[in-house]
């Protein structure tokens, strides 16, 4: 089904009709729209893979996208990318908590919306309806990006490389999901990080290796998570599935006995067996060659993080200073990390500072000690995640003799807008602005530029350009006189001039020791109030006009999250641990802090051992975009038809909103009026020239092409002749080809 022939209402009608028939994939111009079925659909597996490979099936599918990426990689000798994204605006807030209390009352904890509860518990039906209406009109995560990425990987992996590498690539999924996914209110298996997997191919077109890059893991979840949500799956899987010896070695308790896990009152996921998942994860680790010893170290770190949360403090004076309480938690942490209780106490209750060139030791208050403990837990977990990805990459980089050709699959968080939007949404939405720019560039800008360059008659199709919003985030300009001053920021990844964009203002404020979230918000208002994409709000808030809608951000916690400081004392503490894995984490952190010394912009205050989170993210995104720019992109837009994670419920408004947000409707418009299929005159003349019945006066490819089109009476409104290419309306090239092939001329030729 090609939506490109259709008007907007019929696009919507068709999507809904197809969804009701389990046809969850639809093409909108070059973009594949995937509507989450929330149930098993009979569209996958070897039979389907074979059919798409042999071209006996050509209906829209992730397999078809992966297949054309593969073919184009081989024929054009250009790297390809499959960019999977979703766009939603989601609620949190009171109704969600109301819903949680409803399901708890029904004794159906962890189930987002049990269908049997709707019918049998009449008193709750009204609440259900209100919630349903509310949720359907806002939309949320769980659109199906990760599943789609896995389906694309499955297709590519089915090619077989003979070395088993494709199986290894698939087995990275359970590991990354265990350590980087969590149950949220919106999705039982929500990815809390972005992921790019680059699959490498040999000269014969076989998979010979892969490389994974991850982005911005949500580490705050390790120490804090909302009611009804869970922390990372691995915590629950380890506690449920560790064999007795490991359980004893790690001194594991039940999940509801750990403070970090207890706070959200949610321990299980309907239909998921954590113990079984643990076995699948260890099996996957074996397959990607993570040694038994390393696995034990990994699980020791996971257990250490859990036990750190249980380390408590005793107040030792009337200034609220503390020491750690020496009990099971502290003892277990020191055993698992390989440090002494004294060192653990020192790092959590005291801080070394340099004041006026003099070294002093400051005692920590209860709040400071608790923050230090949580920062250590978050850093340990984030380092562990990074380390695991590194190990996986080592294992996947087997095929050194590769062609340099690759297909990258990008599965990155979608646009987010909740009741309360914090630093995480700020970064995620910035990433989405970047990706939307990439989408616009390829589907609107470059497309239309090509028409103009080739001199065809073309009335420009307007599209929502998000350049202004990107500038608000990234660029530096002088407010005086309102003149934009395009100063380089990205070459080095660091600003070289006075910062006046959202990111650089945030970074600058993060380096002032006395700055607060309020001074940051005021600074934004002072510098950016004249910007049309920015609006200062009361107090600590500000609003950004994103391409997908306005989002109000609350700056509470922005500075702290952006600084993401782990005090040098904590790094040195990890370096002193006897186990090799915390030592490795420490060296990595120290290496990062060394690199920073060469950066002129960041002041050398004692704590600035790390690049700020926003700047690191900006650098990562910049590299990502550079990488994607050198590929031919294939876009998949995932749509969530309801927020209840249930099959057969299709919220028209919700779908429409997502289609609008992600530019699909504009793509349909441009595909209808545009000429998406094209072929150079040379290629067209070479392919069909032999069909000409009469000699053409001039043998140049353009004249031959035009003569062929005339001979077969191809309607003039179906194509345009450019300087270098023929441009065909949607699908017309194919119809044209069919026409040519079924013509008498070809029959004559064959005879
Ligand atoms: N093609 C599919 N077939 C069957 N079920 C699917 C499919 N795609 C998604 N789902 C269901 O939807 C759920 C959410 O999908 P997924 O985790 O891929 O969403 P996501 O967009 O990656 O979400 P998040 O942004 O929270 O990570 C899956 O756990 C699965 O139950």
TrEMBL record:
Presence of keyword NADP = no
Q: Which residues form a coiled coil?
A: none
PROSITE patterns for this protein: MYOSIN_MOTOR
Annotated binding of ATP, by residue:
139-146
- Might you report a single GO cellular component term? cytoplasm
Q: Kindly state which keywords UniProt assigns to this record, in alphabetical order.
A: Actin-binding, ATP-binding, Motor protein, Myosin, Nucleotide-binding
Q: Which residues form the Myosin motor domain?
A: 1-742
Q: Where is this region: Actin-binding?
A: 621-643
As one GO molecular function, the record gives:
microfilament motor activity
Looking at the keywords, is RNA-binding present?
no
Question: Which GO BP terms, alphabetically?
Answer: actin filament organization; actin filament-based movement
List, alphabetically, the Gene3D superfamilies matched: 1.10.10.820, 1.20.5.4820, 1.20.58.530, Kinesin motor domain (3.40.850.10), Myosin VI head, motor domain, U50 subdomain (1.20.120.720)
PANTHER family the UniProt entry points to:
MYOSIN (PTHR13140), MYOSIN-1 (PTHR13140:SF780)
Family listed: Belongs to the TRAFAC class myosin-kinesin ATPase superfamily. Myosin family.
Descriptive protein name = Myosin motor domain-containing protein
């Amino acid at each position: 089904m090609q939506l490109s022939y259709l008007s907007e209402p019929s696009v919507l009608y068709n999507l809904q009709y197809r969804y009701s028939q389990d046809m969850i994939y639809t093409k909108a111009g070059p973009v594949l729209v995937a509507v989450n079925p929330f149930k098993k659909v009979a569209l996958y597996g070897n039979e389907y893979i074979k059919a798409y490979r042999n071209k006996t099936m050509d209906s829209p599918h992730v397999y078809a996208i992966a297949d054309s990426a593969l073919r184009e990689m081989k024929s054009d000798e250009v790297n390809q990318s499959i960019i999977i994204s979703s766009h939603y605006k989601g609620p949190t807030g009171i109704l969600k908590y109301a819903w949680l209390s409803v399901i708890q009352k029904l004794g159906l904890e962890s189930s987002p919306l049990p269908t049997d509860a709707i019918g049998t518990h009449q008193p709750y039906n009204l609440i259900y309806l209100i919630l349903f209406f509310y949720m359907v009109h806002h939309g949320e995560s769980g659109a199906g990006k990760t599943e789609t990425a896995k389906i694309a990987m499955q297709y590519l992996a089915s090619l077989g490389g003979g070395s088993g590498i494709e199986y290894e690539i698939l087995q990275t999924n359970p590991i990354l999901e265990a350590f980087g996914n969590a149950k949220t209110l919106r999705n039982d298996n929500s990815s809390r990080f972005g992921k790019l997997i680059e699959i490498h191919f040999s000269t014969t077109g076989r998979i010979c290796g892969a490389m994974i890059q991850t982005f911005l893991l949500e580490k705050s979840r390790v120490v804090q998570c909302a009611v009804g949500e869970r922390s990372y799956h691995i915590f629950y899987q380890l506690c449920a599935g560790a064999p007795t010896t490991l359980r004893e070695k790690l001194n594991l308790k039940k999940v509801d006995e750990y403070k970090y896990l207890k706070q959200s009152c949610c321990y299980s996921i309907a239909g998921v067996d954590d113990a079984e998942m643990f076995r699948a994860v260890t099996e996957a680790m074996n397959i990607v060659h993570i040694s038994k010893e390393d696995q034990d170290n990994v699980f020791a770190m996971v257990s250490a993080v859990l036990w750190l949360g249980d380390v408590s403090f005793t107040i030792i004076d009337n200034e609220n200073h503390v020491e750690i309480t020496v009990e099971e938690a502290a003892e277990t942490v020191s055993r698992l990390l390989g440090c002494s209780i004294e060192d653990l106490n020192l790092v959590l209750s005291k801080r070394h500072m340099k004041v006026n060139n003099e070294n002093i030791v400051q005692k920590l208050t209860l709040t400071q000690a608790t923050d230090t403990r949580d920062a250590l837990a978050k850093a340990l977990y984030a380092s562990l995640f990074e380390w695991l990805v590194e190990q996986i990459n080592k294992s996947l980089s087997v095929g050194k003799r590769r062609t340099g050709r690759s297909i990258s699959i990008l599965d990155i968080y979608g646009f987010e807008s909740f009741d309360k939007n914090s630093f995480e949404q700020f970064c995620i939405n910035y990433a989405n602005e970047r990706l939307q720019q990439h989408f616009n560039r390829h589907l609107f800008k470059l497309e239309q530029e090509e028409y103009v360059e080739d001199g065809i008659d073309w009335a420009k199709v307007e599209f929502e350009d998000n350049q202004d919003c990107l500038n608000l985030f990234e660029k530096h300009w002088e407010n005086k006189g309102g003149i934009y001053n395009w100063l380089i920021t990205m070459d080095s990844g660091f600003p070289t001039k006075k910062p006046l964009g959202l990111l650089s203002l945030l970074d600058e404020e993060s380096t002032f020791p006395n700055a607060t979230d309020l001074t940051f918000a005021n600074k934004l208002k002072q510098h950016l109030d004249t910007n049309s994409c920015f609006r200062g709000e009361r107090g600590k808030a500000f609003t950004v006009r994103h391409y997908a809608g306005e989002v109000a951000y609350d700056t509470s916690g922005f500075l702290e999250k952006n600084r993401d400081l782990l005090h040098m004392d904590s790094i040195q503490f990890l370096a002193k641990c006897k186990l090799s894995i915390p030592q490795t984490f420490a060296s990595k952190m120290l290496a990062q802090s060394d690199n920073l010394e060469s950066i002129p912009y960041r002041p050398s205050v004692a704590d600035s051992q790390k690049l700020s989170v926003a700047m690191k993210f900006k650098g990562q995104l910049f590299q990502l975009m550079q990488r994607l720019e050198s590929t031919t992109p294939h876009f998949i837009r995932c749509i969530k038809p309801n927020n209840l994670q249930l099959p057969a419920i299709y919220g028209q408004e919700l779908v429409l909103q997502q289609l609008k947000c992600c530019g699909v409707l504009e793509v349909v418009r441009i595909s209808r009026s545009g000429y998406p299929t094209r072929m150079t005159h040379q290629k067209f003349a070479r392919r069909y020239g032999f069909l000409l019945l009469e000699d053409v006066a001039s043998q140049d490819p353009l004249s031959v092409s035009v003569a062929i089109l005339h001979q077969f009476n191809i309607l003039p409104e179906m194509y345009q002749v450019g300087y270098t290419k023929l441009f065909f309306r949607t699908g017309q090239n194919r119809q044209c080809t069919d026409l040519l092939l079924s013509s008498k001329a070809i029959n004559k030729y064959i005879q």
